[in-house]
């Protein structure tokens, strides 16, 4: 059974940093691209970043490029999102998701909440 | 950037058919995927590659895609189908995933 468990969310001040983790199990982690998707309170889904199975390529939404870094440790079956220079508009539930094929996110974790506020 | 437009809300009577649209320029040239989200829960993939269903998704969920509109059809709607539905594509020009604006389906 595929399981994705996010952690690391919390309350942080504007300009601060946070590192999210997503522990994966139930599938061959290194064979699949992984993504982060966020959802601000009462709003729709917004893609944040994606990384290939090998970790060799990464892509980012314009809203986070240069501030966020997606990475993975295939030996630990864990996905990460390093978030720097956080802004109030980054407040959201952050989901990690497994890509079936490159375009399709077939399994999602339950999310970890991030609040950026002073 | 590539924008996917969905109606904010759709209402359907139990047992009837609900149609959720996703509009964009030449979306028929792309593969469209649909996700369902209940309040407080994570999204679930219900249709991928325009019309295919993951295992465990009822046949009542179907999809199509042509021209400037992709469509998710929910047949014989049930109370458990209530929630938000999002379409999604991969925008290869910008190397971005793009989600639609979302549609709240109400079964009443």
Question: Could you characterize what this model shows?
Answer:
The complex is a heterodimer of chains A (118) and B (108). With 118 residues, chain A is mainly beta. In chain A, 0% of the residues lie in helices and 52% in strands. In chain A, strands 2, 4, 5, 6, 9, 10 and 11 form a 7-stranded mixed sheet that branches. The model of chain A has no long low-confidence stretch (mean pLDDT 97). Chain B has 108 residues and is mainly β. In chain B, 0% of the residues lie in helices and 45% in strands. Chain B has no helices and 9 strands. The chains are: A mainly beta (118), B mainly beta (108).
In angstroms, what separates the terminal alpha carbons of chain B? 36 Å
Return the average pLDDT of chain A rounded to an integer: 97
Span of the ends, CA to CA of chain A? 40 Å
How would you characterize the largest beta sheet of chain B? 6 strands, mixed
Approximate helicity band of chain B: under 10%
Order of helices and strands of chain B: EEEEEEEEE
| Pattern of helices and strands of chain A | EEEEEEEEEEE
**Proportion of β residues of chain A?**
over 45%
Separate helix tally of chain B: 0
SS-derived structural category of chain A: mainly beta
Assembly annotation: heterodimer
Radius of gyration of chain B: 13 Å
Compact summary:
The complex is a heterodimer of chains A (118) and B (108). Chain A contains no helices and eleven strands.
Break the fold down into its secondary structure elements and pairings.
The complex is a heterodimer of chains A (118) and B (108).
Chain A: E1 3-7, E2 10-12, E3 18-25, E4 34-39, E5 45-51, E6 58-60, E7 68-73, E8 78-83, E9 92-99, E10 105-108, E11 112-116
Parallel strand pairs in A: 2-11
Antiparallel strand pairs in A: 1-3, 3-8, 4-5, 4-9, 5-6, 7-8, 9-10, 9-11
Chain B: E1 9-12, E2 18-23, E3 33-37, E4 44-47, E5 61-66, E6 69-74, E7 83-91, E8 96-99, E9 103-107
Parallel strand pairs in B: 1-9
Antiparallel strand pairs in B: 2-6, 3-4, 3-7, 5-6, 7-8, 7-9
């Amino acid at each position: 059974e595929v399981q994705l468990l996010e952690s690391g969310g919390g309350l942080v001040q504007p300009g601060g940093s946070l590192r999210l983790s997503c522990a994966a199990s139930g599938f061959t982690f290194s064979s699949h691209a992984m993504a982060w998707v966020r959802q601000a309170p009462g709003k729709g889904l917004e893609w944040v970043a994606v990384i290939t199975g090998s970790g060799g390529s990464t892509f980012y939404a314009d809203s986070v490029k240069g501030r966020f870094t997606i990475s993975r440790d295939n030996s630990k079956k864990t996905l990460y999102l390093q978030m720097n220079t956080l802004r109030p508009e980054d407040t959201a539930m952050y989901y990690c998701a497994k890509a079936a094929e490159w375009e399709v996110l077939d399994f999602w974790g339950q999310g970890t909440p991030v609040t950026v506020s002073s | 950037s590539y924008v996917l437009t969905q109606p904010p809300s759709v209402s359907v009577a139990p047992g009837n058919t609900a149609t959720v649209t996703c509009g964009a320029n030449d979306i028929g040239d792309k593969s469209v995927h649909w996700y369902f989200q209940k309040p407080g829960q994570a999204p679930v993939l219900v249709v991928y590659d325009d019309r295919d269903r993951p295992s465990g998704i009822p046949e009542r969920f179907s999809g199509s895609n042509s021209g400037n509109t992709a469509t998710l059809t929910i047949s014989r709607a049930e109370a458990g189908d209530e929630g938000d539905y999002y379409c999604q594509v991969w925008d290869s020009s910008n190397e971005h995933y793009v989600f639609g604006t979302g549609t709240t389906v109400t079964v009443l």
